[in-house]
């Protein structure tokens, strides 16, 4: 099997359409975009639209318009995760057929007193052996073999899934594909060789690597960049009041994103065109400036 290092570079940005593109998401997009361009690779835009209850009408179009306004150029057409529903279902059925996944009718109330691990409540395996799939979620079996990987910025990271999270949901009780399964299948379909994303998803990576191994998929390289926070330390997100990025001060905002990514753009770039800013960023990109950083406070 070829390794990620031996394959042509393919990166991606995969926002969920739950609101407009805010500064924290812009920073993640900038990092993944320039990393791909610095490797002479391809960069894909994937809209992760598989959770309709959380989606905001018009959000996908708003995100795409904002990215276009800021001069991002993705390779090929915009990819919508919902278009891969059949592939998600095929992967799910393969895991069920191999007895690697099973139906679960537990509610949160059923294991409220269960042991808590670093990822929250550790599922105690109550429904292992169940075959009643009516009105049930589907969980993936785990074990306590250490799942580790070398993150380009955060170093070695590992988890023992059975004791730290327990068997986890890959299809929700409402029939929707869960994030972990969908993202693993989509990255495989699209040939992603490196994932650049926020450190808030670092804890998710061992579960995704476990899925990749069970499905005999390629494991991409991972780079988890610091998360952008408010001054009180809370993550900059739609839930904490983050608003959409301005479309009127593009150069200033783009330079601010490069600054929090440790790239120190020259002051005169705030008056430059977006194409000139991207040209400077691609030539000057040094992602290693972020090594070991977990958070970056966004100042006004």
Instruction: Could you tell me the CATH topology label of the largest domain.
Output: Rossmann fold
Strand count, sense and closure of the main sheet? 3 strands, parallel
CATH architecture grouping of the largest domain:
3-Layer(aba) Sandwich
| Average predicted confidence as pLDDT | 92
What structural category do the secondary elements indicate? Answer: alpha/beta
Please work out how many helical segments DSSP would assign: 8
What percentage of residues falls in helices of 4 or more residues? 25-40%
As a whole number of angstroms, the C-alpha radius of gyration is 20 Å
- Which range does the strand content fall in? 15-25%
Task: Kindly report how far apart the N and C termini lie.
Answer: 48 Å
The CATH superfamily of the largest domain is identified as HUPs
Shape: elongated
Order of helical and strand elements? EHEHEHEEEEEEHEHEHEEHHE
Strand order across the largest sheet: 1-2-3
Total number of distinct structural domains: 2
Low-confidence stretches: none
Number of strands: 14
**The level-1 CATH class of the largest domain:** Alpha Beta
């Amino acid at each position: 099997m070829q390794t990620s290092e031996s394959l042509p570079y393919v990166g991606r940005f995969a926002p969920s359409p739950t609101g407009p593109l805010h500064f924290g998401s812009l920073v993640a997009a900038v990092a993944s975009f320039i990393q791909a361009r610095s490797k002479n690779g391809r960069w894909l835009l994937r809209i992760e639209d598989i959770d309709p209850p959380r989606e905001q009408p018009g959000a996908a179009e708003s995100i795409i318009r904002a990215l276009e306004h800021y001069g991002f150029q993705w390779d090929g057409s915009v990819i919508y995760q919902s278009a891969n529903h059949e592939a998600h279902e095929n992967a799910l059925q393969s895991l069920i057929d191999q007895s690697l996944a099973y139906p679960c009718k537990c509610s949160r109330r059923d294991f409220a007193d269960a042991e808590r691990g670093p990822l929250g409540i550790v599922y105690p395996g109550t429904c292992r052996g169940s075959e009643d799939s009516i009105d049930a979620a589907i969980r993936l079996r785990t074990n306590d073999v250490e799942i580790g990987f070398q993150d380009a910025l955060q170093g070695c990271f590992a988890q023992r899934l059975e004791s730290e999270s327990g068997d986890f949901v890959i299809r929700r009780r409402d029939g929707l594909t869960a994030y972990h399964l969908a993202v693993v299948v989509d990255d495989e379909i699209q040939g992603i060789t490196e994932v650049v994303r926020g450190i808030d998803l670092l804890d998710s990576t061992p579960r995704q690597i476990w899925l990749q191994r069970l499905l005999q998929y390629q494991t991409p390289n991972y780079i988890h960049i610091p998360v952008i926070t408010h001054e009180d330390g809370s993550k900059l997100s739609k839930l904490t009041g983050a608003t959409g990025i301005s479309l009127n001060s593009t150069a200033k905002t783009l330079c601010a994103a490069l600054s929090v990514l440790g790239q120190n753009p020259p002051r005169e770039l705030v008056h430059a065109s977006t194409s000139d800013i991207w040209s400077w960023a691609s030539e000057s990109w040094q992602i290693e400036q972020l090594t070991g950083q977990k958070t970056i406070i966004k100042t006004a």
